[in-house]
Specification:
Elements: H1 17-31, H2 43-55, H3 60-66, H4 73-80, H5 86-99, E1 109-120, E2 133-139, E3 142-154, E4 161-166, H6 173-182, E5 190-196, H7 203-212, E6 216-219, E7 239-247, E8 251-263, E9 273-281, H8 290-295, H9 298-308, H10 319-342, E10 345-348, E11 351-354, H11 361-375
Parallel strand pairs: 1-5, 5-6
Antiparallel strand pairs: 1-3, 2-3, 3-4, 6-9, 7-8, 8-9, 10-11
Helix pairs in contact: 1-2, 1-5, 1-11, 2-3, 2-11, 3-4, 5-10, 9-10
């Protein structure tokens, strides 16, 4: 953790709330050219309202009720509901995500993580929603979700999301992985090692990644009572072996399996050996280090938690609007990393020092909120209807 600077502070501010808002607006206006049918309500005004709602993890309706000089919630949603081109918007959002990243990410060789983020869905889907309702194991009382696949770079002080994709209901995992890897092309980025969740453990995905010859690390699912991958859970030492994964629909694929043995040592009241299986390809990591290397992938899980702090709350039935709100949250997290790197840091001998304690994500969101409230003041009084 970077220590809080104890010496005297600089006479000029490194960053202000207005500059933070300007940076966010510049990013959105540059890459999201929305056309509004209004003479008194512009695109910049709309983005300010969205940023205020996102910074407070609030809804559009409540945000419109709290700010003076803004349209009603219905008026704002009227303009947002005109968004109906998922492909075009997704491309614009991904260009916005990639436009605000720290240096040396482009044209580099990095460790990359890919994962699916599922947001629970309840109710009966509309015709527009049906193609994007993803079915998965029960969670939070439902088996229906909006699924968003993201690709994330694992790099110290530069952990950013490089792309987001709204997963179609009929889309295969191979198509999702291919789509996300293609997002790295504009950055001229090479994959040093790819980390995937066990949800991608399948014959088609493993076969495809081996065909692309991409180094990857993926946990295997333990199946079977005595056969399957369960037959590999033997002994008390970690070991490497070959295994043929078979599917009734997709045939089989040979893969390199790593069986890692660790001990519970009373963790959660358990004792004995804990087995973890990994599928690897072109990964030269010692068996006792695989766990530590794979833990780096959990940064993408952290990005989801951080995103939830600045995702606009909505019950919209428009999947395009939902994508906008989710992607906006990731853009704000990327912008936070970008501002930290360029404004809240100093170059010193041995590398750049990032003062994250001075400018947490929560602080950036507060900066955005108070800057917007300076343009659109908050209501401070309540009047009741006249009885006469």
């Amino acid at each position: 953790m970077t220590p809080y600077p104890s010496s005297s502070l600089s006479p000029t501010p490194a960053l202000t709330d207005e500059a933070t808002l300007d940076a966010a607006l510049d990013c959105l206006l540059e890459h999201l050219p929305l056309e509004l049918e209004s003479t008194y309500f512009g695109c910049e005004d709309l983005f300010e309202i969205l940023l205020r709602a996102a910074s407070r993890h609030d809804s559009i309706e409540h945000t419109a009720q709290r700010l003076e000089g803004v349209p009603s919630g219905n008026g704002i949603r009227y303009h947002l509901d005109k968004l109906d081109d998922m492909v075009t918007l997704e491309g614009q959002l991904n260009r916005a995500l990639q436009s605000r990243i720290p240096p040396k990410i482009r044209k580099g060789r990095h460790r990359i993580a890919i994962d699916l983020h599922l947001i629970p869905y309840y109710g009966n889907p509309t015709e527009a929603e049906v193609p994007y309702i993803y079915r998965s194991q029960a969670k939070a009382g439902t088996t229906s979700f909006f699924a968003y696949a993201t690709v994330y770079v694992i790099c110290r002080n530069k952990r950013v999301t490089l792309g987001i994709h709204a997963v179609h209901r009929q889309e295969t995992l191979v198509a999702t992985v291919t789509y996300l890897l293609a997002m790295l092309s504009p950055l001229r980025m090479r994959v040093k090692r790819l980390y995937l969740d066990r949800g991608f453990y399948s014959v088609p995905v493993i076969r495809w990644l081996k065909a692309l010859n991409i180094p990857f690390l993926m946990p295997a699912v333990i199946r079977g009572k005595t056969g399957g991958t369960r037959q590999l859970l033997v002994g008390c030492k970690s070991y490497a072996t070959c295994y043929t994964l078979t599917s009734a629909n997709y045939g089989s694929v040979a893969c390199q399996m790593r069986v890692v043995c660790t001990y519970y040592k009373g963790f959660k009241g358990k004792h004995g050996i804990q087995y973890t299986l990994y599928v690897v390809h072109r990964v030269t990591v010692a068996l006792n280090q695989l766990h530590l290397h794979y833990k780096d992938r959990f940064g993408i899980e952290t990005s989801y938690r951080m995103k939830n702090h600045c995702r606009i709350r909505t019950a919209s039935k428009n999947p395009v609007v939902r994508l906008l709100f989710v992607a906006l949250a990731f853009i704000l997290v990327n912008l936070w990393v970008y501002l930290l790197w360029f404004f809240v840091s100093q170059t010193q001998r041995g590398g750049r020092v990032i003062y994250r304690e001075l400018f947490s994500l929560k602080t950036m969101l507060e900066f955005l909120s108070q800057a917007v409230e300076r343009h659109f003041p908050v209501f401070t009084t309540i009047y009741l209807p006249s009885s006469g």
